[in-house]
Amino acid sequence: MSDYHLNRVLYEKAREHKMPDGIGPDETAEYDLTPEERAALAEGDLEALFRLGANPYLIRRVFRKRFKV
Amino acid sequence: MATIVAAAMTSHAPNMTATPEAAPAQRKRFLAGLEEMRRRLIAARPDLVMMFVNDHVQNFFYDNLPAYCVGVGDKHWAPRGAAGFLKIPERQVPGAPDWAKSLLATGLEAGFDLAVSHELEFWDDVSVPAHFLMPEGTLPIVPVLTNCVAPPLPTPKRSWQLGSFVRRFIEGRPAHERIALIATGGISHWIGVPNTGHINPEWDHWVLETLAEGRGEELAALTWSQIERDGGNGGQEIRNWISVAAAVPGVKGEILTYEPVKEWLTGCGAVWMQL
Predict the structure, then answer these.
(1) What share of chain A in percent tops pLDDT 90?
(2) Which CATH code fits B3-273?
(3) B83-109 pLDDT per residue, tens
(4) Which residues contact A22 (CB under 8 A, 6 or more apart)?
(5) Model confidence at A1, in pLDDT bands (50, 70, 90)?
(6) Which residues have CB under 8 Å from B176's CB, separation 6+?
(7) ipTM value of the model?
(8) Which positions in chain A touch B85 (Cβ < 8 Å)?
(9) CB contact under 8 A, A69 and B197
């Protein structure tokens, strides 16, 4: 499974310059995601997103509030 | 034959401006280094600044992601959408379309196939250094972007070759032109990864001293894995520095400042090459 759509969600969100806690299923419905990817986005699960191939810069950009530093 | 009148490198980080209250002592020392760079840049009287930078997945996404790209627009956003976060006023800085298009065309003839963009939006990559180095926003900027953030990345060796090509291109330009080269990015930082916030000052000092001693080509021999291990994923941005070093091969430099700023998540250095 490609991580393309996972990154697409993050890219679109990053361009909104918002810092959500999570990106819920209503916002990801139109994207071709696995259940695991959808859950990681909804929860803003940093480690899972990284493991699933999300670009670290996009993880940081979108979920900045979830980082300890 | 045009003249390279300045060559310098500096780190960039959004928190340099986004959280100005954090790390006040280190910020003061680092910005003193940038102020000295600014003083020297003005004294060099460039009429154009080439900026070797990297996108942060704001202009280029995975549907169309160039290894190298030159910005040929007559203006560049620096910043636009990120202005609120960076706490830098939204603005456009001038480009140099004819010069940039000449670089593009010459590259295609010479076997260096740069991608091209007519509209670019910069985040901390250009906006933050330009805020401190060129606050007037009057010097034309030609940005050359290297993919440092979405692997697979071009090799450091290729970035050296890019700088060598740029040097040859400038040598072929009219004699009256005065060109400054500024790289931004690096040095070590781990960003968005599980150990986000880690900095490796030992590696940073090695990078800075290697450049200062005029041995930048040694950095071009690094592999992606070596940089990832010692400099983190953010350390991959030293490709920008390598290109500038390659444009002034053998030239020694002066380390203007170095601060491993935890609050900026980045080993922050600045080097002025002594042409």
Answers:
(1) 93
(2) 3.40.830.10
(3) 999 999 999 999 999 999 999 999 999
(4) A41, A42, A43, A44
(5) low
(6) B2
(7) 0.96
(8) 17
(9) yes
